[in-house]
C-alpha cells in the first residue's frame, strides 16, 4: 500500500496486493482439515465475490512456504465445452479417446504426491466439464492427494463435484460474508492504518460483507477523496462515490430498465423500506412485481404488512449517481406528499419525510422543518438539524432561530453561537434572559471564557428575575464554579436549581453536569447515582438534552473514576452505546471518548487506545474546541504510557496542553496526571512523581479530596510512598473502598510488605482497576524477593503478568522492575532512562552526574538482573516481573 498526504491534511492511498484479513477462523479450519483426518480436503462454498478464491490461494501460498508442492486448476465458461478443458495445459494429446488422458492425469498427481506432500487447488468447480469433474472426484476418492475446491453457492455443478462432500470425501466449508469486525480488519489491512468503526459498518452495510465489492468500494472512496486520513484514522462521512468498476460489478441488473421499472427502483432509492401499499400509490403494482422477479427488489412480510426494499444497497447508490436531480426531486416530492397522508410512526419517520420535502420541488414547509430539526436533535444528528432549522428560519418560523442557536452550541461552533446569542439576548424580547444563560453556557464550555460568562451571569443577577429565571442562572453559575474548582459552592447551587423543578431540560442538564463534577471531587459517591439516572433519562427523550448524553456520561465517568465506581462507569458506557440505532459523526466522537475512557479505567488499554484515537479523529474533523479534545488527549497520554509507547504519550500530552482552557482549574488534576504518565513513559519517573505530588497539594488546598487521592494513587503505582500517612487520612475521611485500597497500597509499599501489597492488588481488582492491581502485584514480587521469599515472589510476579496480559501488555515502572534482583533507587531511575532510549551522556545531563557514574550504575544493574549489555538490560526491564 502506498499512502500520500498533502499539507492540507487530505490523504490518498492506493490499495495494492490482495490482503486477506478477517478470515483467520476459516483459514485455521481449512489447515486443520488438510493436516489429517479421514477427509481428502475441503470444498469452500460461497456466493460470488465472498472471497473463496482468495482464501484458497492463501492456503496454497502457505503450503508452498512450508515446502509443499501445489497445483492450481481453474474452471471457466470457455473451457467447459471441452473434454478435460480445465486440464488442457497438463495433457499432451486431446485425442478422441479421453480415458488415457484421465488415467495419465491421475497417475501424474499421485506420483507427485509420493515425491512429497501435494495440495491441488480447484477454483470455480461449478464450471468444470464432466470429465474434469470426474478427475477431481477420482483424486478425492483415491485419497492419494489433498484437494481444496471452491464452488459458487446456488450454481449447478457436475454430479461428481456434488459427490465430493455428499459422499464424505471432502469436508464442506460454507463461507459466509465478512462480519462487521472482519470487514474492518480487511479495510485496515488494505490501508495499513486504523479505520473508525462507523465507516467500517457503513462499508459492511453497503457491500453485505462481500470481499470483492468491499475492496473496490474502499478504493473508489479514496480515489474520489471521500475517505480521508484524519488524526491517523481513516474516516468516511461523505457521499458514496460510484466508479465504473463498481458499476460493472453490481450494476448490470439496473442497466437498460424500462422507465416504469426504473421508477420502482428510483423511488426506493430515495426512501426504503416502504410499505407496498404506499409504494403502489406511486408506481404500478405490476411493475413492482416485475422488479421483484428481476431480483431488483425484495418484498418481505413484517407483521401484517408487506414492505419493499432494494435487493442490494448499492443499487440505490448506482441509480442516484446516474439519475438527474430534477427527476429525483420530483420523486422525493411525491414521496413526501404520500407519506404525509398517514400519521408518522415515530421521530425517524418525521425526519425522513422532512428530508424528502427539503430536497424536493415542493414549496417550503416551515413547521415540518422545525419539527424535523427538533427530532433530528433528539436523534443526535446535529448537522441535519442545522439544515432543518436554517430552512425553517428562511421559511419565516419565529421559533427556528432559537432552536438553531441551541443546535449551534451543541455542535461546538462557539464563535458562531456567540454571535447569534449575543444578538438574541441583547434584544430585550421575550425569553432574552433565558438566552443570556445559554450564551453564558457557550462561553464556559465552547469558548473557555469563564470570566466573560461570569460577567453575563452577574448582569442577570443584578436585575429583576422571575423564580424560573433565577434557577436557570444558578444552574449555569454552578458550571462556572465547578470549572473553577469551587466544588462545594457548585454543589449547593446546582442542587438548589434542580430541586426547584422549574428548569428547562437544557438547564437541568447544566445543573447535573456541575453537580456531578462537584460530588465526584468531594467524594460523595452515594449521591452520584440518582443524579446520573435522572440526567440520562432526560437526555434520552428531550431534543434540548439528547446530544448531551455522552458529554454528561463522560463527566459521570470521571466522577466514577475518582470515587472508585469503575464497574458502574463501564456498565453505563455500554448502556449508552446501545441507546441509539446509529450515532452520527460528532456524537460518535463523544461516544468513542466515553468508551475509550471506560476501557482505560478497567484496564483494557489497547482497546482504549483504538477508541480514543477514533474520538480524537472526530474532534479534529469537526474542529471541536470543547473539553472533549484535552480530555481525550489526557486519556491517550495515559494509555500510551501504560503500554510503554513513549513518543505517542508525549505527542498526546503536547496536544492537550494546547487546548486546555485557561482558568479551568477543575482539569488541572487530570492534566497533571496525564503529564506524569507521559514523563514516566519517557523515563522521568522522579519528575512524574513531583508533578503529581504538586497537583495533590493543590487539590488539597481546593478541597478536592478525591483528586488528591488519585494523585497519591498514581504516585504509589510509580513507586513513591512518601504520602502514605496522608493517604490513610483520606481513607478515614472519605469512607470509599478506593481510598482504603490506596492507603493500603502506599503503607505496604513504604513498609516493603509483599503480603499487604498483594492485598492492595486484590482491592484494586475488586474495584475494577486491573492496571493498578498489576502494578501493586509487581511491587509485591519485588518486595518478596528482597525479603528472600522467592516462591511468594514468583507467585506475585505471575499474578502481575496475568493482569498485565489482560490489560493488553503493560509496560509501567512497576512492571519493568525485575523481581529477581531488586535494583537500588538510583539504578531504577537510570534503567527507566535506558528503557526510554536516552544515551549515557543524556542521562548524566538529566541527573547532573558524570557519564562514568552512569556507566557504573548500568553495569551493576546488569549484574543484578543477569544482562550482558545495555540493550539486554532494557529488554529485560520491558518484560518485567516473571520474565
From TrEMBL:
GO biological process, alphabetically ordered: regulation of DNA-templated transcription
UniProt keyword terms in alphabetical order: ATP-binding, Nucleotide-binding
Pfam families: AAA_16 (PF13191), GerE (PF00196)
Record's GO cellular component terms: cytoplasm
Name of the protein this chain belongs to: AAA ATPase domain-containing protein
Listed InterPro entries: AAA_16, P-loop_NTPase, Sig_transdc_resp-reg_C-effctor, TPR-like_helical_dom_sf, Tscrpt_reg_LuxR_C, WH-like_DNA-bd_sf
Record PANTHER family: GUANYLATE CYCLASE DOMAIN-CONTAINING PROTEIN, TESTICULAR SOLUBLE ADENYLYL CYCLASE
CDD domains: LuxR_C_like
Signal peptide start-end: none
Gene Ontology MF, one: adenylate cyclase activity
Record-annotated HTH luxR-type domain positions: 816-881
Amino acid at each position: 500500500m502506498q499512502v500520500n498526504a498533502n499539507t492540507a491534511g487530505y490523504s490518498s492511498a492506493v490499495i495494492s496486493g490482495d490482503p486477506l484479513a478477517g478470515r483467520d477462523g476459516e483459514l485455521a479450519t481449512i489447515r486443520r482439515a488438510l493436516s489429517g483426518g479421514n477427509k481428502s480436503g475441503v470444498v469452500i462454498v460461497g456466493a460470488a465475490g465472498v472471497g473463496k478464491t482468495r482464501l484458497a490461494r492463501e492456503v496454497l501460498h502457505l503450503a508452498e512456504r512450508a515446502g509443499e508442492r501445489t497445483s492450481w486448476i481453474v474452471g471457466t465458461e470457455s473451457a467447459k465445452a471441452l473434454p478435460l478443458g480445465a486440464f488442457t495445459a497438463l495433457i499432451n494429446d486431446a485425442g478422441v479417446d479421453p480415458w488415457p488422458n484421465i488415467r495419465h492425469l491421475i497417475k501424474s498427481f499421485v506420483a507427485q504426491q509420493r515425491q512429497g506432500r501435494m495440495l491441488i487447488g480447484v477454483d470455480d468447480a461449478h464450471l468444470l466439464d464432466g470429465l474434469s469433474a470426474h478427475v477431481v472426484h477420482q483424486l478425492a476418492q483415491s485419497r492419494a492427494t489433498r484437494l481444496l475446491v471452491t464452488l459458487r453457492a446456488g450454481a449447478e455443478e457436475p454430479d461428481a463435484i456434488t459427490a465430493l462432500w455428499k459422499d464424505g470425501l471432502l469436508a464442506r466449508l460454507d463461507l459466509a460474508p465478512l462480519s462487521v469486525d472482519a470487514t474492518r480488519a480487511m479495510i485496515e489491512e488494505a490501508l495499513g492504518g486504523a479505520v473508525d468503526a462507523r465507516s467500517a459498518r457503513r462499508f459492511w452495510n453497503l457491500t453485505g460483507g462481500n470481499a470483492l465489492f468491499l475492496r473496490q468500494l474502499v478504493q473508489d472512496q479514496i480515489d474520489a477523496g471521500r475517505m480521508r486520513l484524519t488524526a491517523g484514522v481513516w474516516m468516511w462521512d461523505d457521499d458514496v462515490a460510484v466508479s465504473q468498476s463498481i458499476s460493472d460489478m453490481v450494476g448490470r441488473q439496473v442497466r437498460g430498465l424500462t422507465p416504469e421499472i426504473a421508477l420502482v427502483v428510483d423511488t426506493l432509492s430515495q426512501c426504503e423500506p416502504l410499505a407496498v401499499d404506499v409504494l403502489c400509490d406511486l408506481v404500478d403494482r405490476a411493475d413492482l412485481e416485475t422488479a421483484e422477479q428481476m431480483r431488483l427488489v425484495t418484498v418481505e412480510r413484517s407483521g401484517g404488512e408487506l414492505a419493499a426494499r432494494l435487493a442490494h444497497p448499492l443499487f440505490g447508490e448506482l441509480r442516484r449517481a446516474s439519475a438527474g436531480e430534477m427527476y429525483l426531486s420530483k420523486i422525493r416530492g411525491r414521496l413526501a406528499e404520500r407519506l404525509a397522508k398517514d400519521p408518522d410512526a415515530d421521530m425517524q419517520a418525521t425526519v425522513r419525510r422532512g428530508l424528502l420535502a427539503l430536497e424536493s420541488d415542493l414549496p417550503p414547509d416551515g413547521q415540518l422543518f422545525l419539527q424535523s430539526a427538533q427530532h433530528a436533535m433528539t436523534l443526535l444528528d446535529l448537522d441535519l438539524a442545522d439544515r432543518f432549522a436554517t430552512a425553517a428560519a428562511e421559511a419565516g418560523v419565529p421559533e427556528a432561530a432559537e432552536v438553531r442557536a441551541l443546535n449551534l452550541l451543541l455542535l461546538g461552533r462557539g464563535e458562531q453561537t456567540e454571535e447569534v446569542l449575543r444578538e438574541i439576548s441583547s434584544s430585550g424580547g421575550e425569553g432574552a434572559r433565558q438566552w443570556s444563560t445559554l450564551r453564558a453556557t457557550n462561553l464556559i464550555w465552547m469558548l473557555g471564557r469563564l470570566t466573560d460568562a461570569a460577567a453575563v451571569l452577574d448582569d442577570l443577577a443584578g436585575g429583576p428575575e422571575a423564580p424560573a429565571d433565577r434557577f436557570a442562572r444558578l444552574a449555569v453559575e454552578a458550571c462556572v464554579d465547578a470549572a473553577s474548582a469551587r466544588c462545594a459552592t457548585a454543589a449547593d447551587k446546582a442542587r438548589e436549581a434542580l430541586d426547584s423543578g422549574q428548569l428547562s431540560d437544557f438547564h437541568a442538564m447544566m445543573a447535573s453536569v456541575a453537580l456531578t463534577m462537584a460530588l465526584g471531587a468531594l467524594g460523595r459517591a452515594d449521591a452520584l447515582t440518582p443524579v446520573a439516572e435522572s440526567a440520562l433519562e432526560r437526555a434520552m427523550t428531550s431534543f434540548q438534552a439528547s446530544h448531551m448524553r455522552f458529554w454528561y456520561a463522560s463527566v459521570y465517568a470521571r466522577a466514577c473514576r475518582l470515587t472508585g465506581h469503575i464497574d458502574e462507569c463501564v456498565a453505563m458506557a455500554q448502556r449508552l452505546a446501545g441507546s441509539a440505532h446509529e450515532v452520527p459523526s460528532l456524537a460518535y466522537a463523544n461516544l468513542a471518548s466515553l468508551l475509550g475512557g471506560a476501557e482505560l479505567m478497567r484496564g483494557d488499554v489497547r482497546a482504549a487506545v483504538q477508541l480514543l484515537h477514533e474520538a480524537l479523529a472526530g474532534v479534529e474533523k469537526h474542529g471541536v474546541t470543547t473539553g472533549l479534545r484535552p480530555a481525550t488527549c489526557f486519556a491517550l497520554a495515559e494509555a500510551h504510557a501504560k503500554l510503554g509507547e513513549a513518543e505517542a504519550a508525549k505527542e498526546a500530552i503536547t496536544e492537550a496542553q494546547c487546548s486546555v482552557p485557561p482558568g479551568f482549574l477543575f482539569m488541572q488534576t487530570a492534566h497533571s496526571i496525564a503529564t506524569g504518565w507521559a514523563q514516566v513513559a519517557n523515563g522521568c519517573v522522579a519528575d512524574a512523581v513531583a508533578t503529581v505530588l504538586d497537583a495533590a497539594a493543590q487539590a488539597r488546598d481546593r478541597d478536592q479530596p478525591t483528586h488528591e487521592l488519585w494523585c497519591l494513587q498514581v504516585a504509589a503505582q510509580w513507586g513513591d510512598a512518601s504520602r502514605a500517612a496522608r493517604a490513610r487520612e483520606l481513607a478515614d475521611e472519605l469512607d470509599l473502598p478506593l481510598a482504603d485500597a490506596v492507603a493500603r497500597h502506599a503503607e505496604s509499599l513504604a513498609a516493603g510488605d509483599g503480603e499487604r501489597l498483594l492485598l492492595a492488588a486484590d482491592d484494586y481488582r475488586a474495584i475494577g482497576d486491573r492496571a493498578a492491581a498489576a502494578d501493586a502485584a509487581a511491587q509485591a514480587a519485588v518486595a518478596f524477593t528482597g525479603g528472600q521469599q522467592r516462591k511468594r515472589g514468583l507467585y506475585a510476579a505471575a499474578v502481575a503478568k496475568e493482569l498485565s496480559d489482560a490489560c493488553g501488555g503493560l509496560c509501567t515502572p512497576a512492571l519493568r522492575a525485575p523481581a529477581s534482583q531488586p535494583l537500588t533507587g538510583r539504578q531504577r531511575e537510570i534503567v527507566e532512562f535506558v528503557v526510554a532510549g536516552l544515551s549515557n551522556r543524556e542521562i548524566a545531563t538529566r541527573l547532573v552526574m558524570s557519564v562514568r557514574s552512569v556507566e557504573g550504575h548500568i553495569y551493576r544493574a546488569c549484574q543484578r538482573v543477569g544482562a550482558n549489555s545495555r540493550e539486554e538490560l532494557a529488554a529485560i526491564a520491558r518484560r518485567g516481573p516473571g520474565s
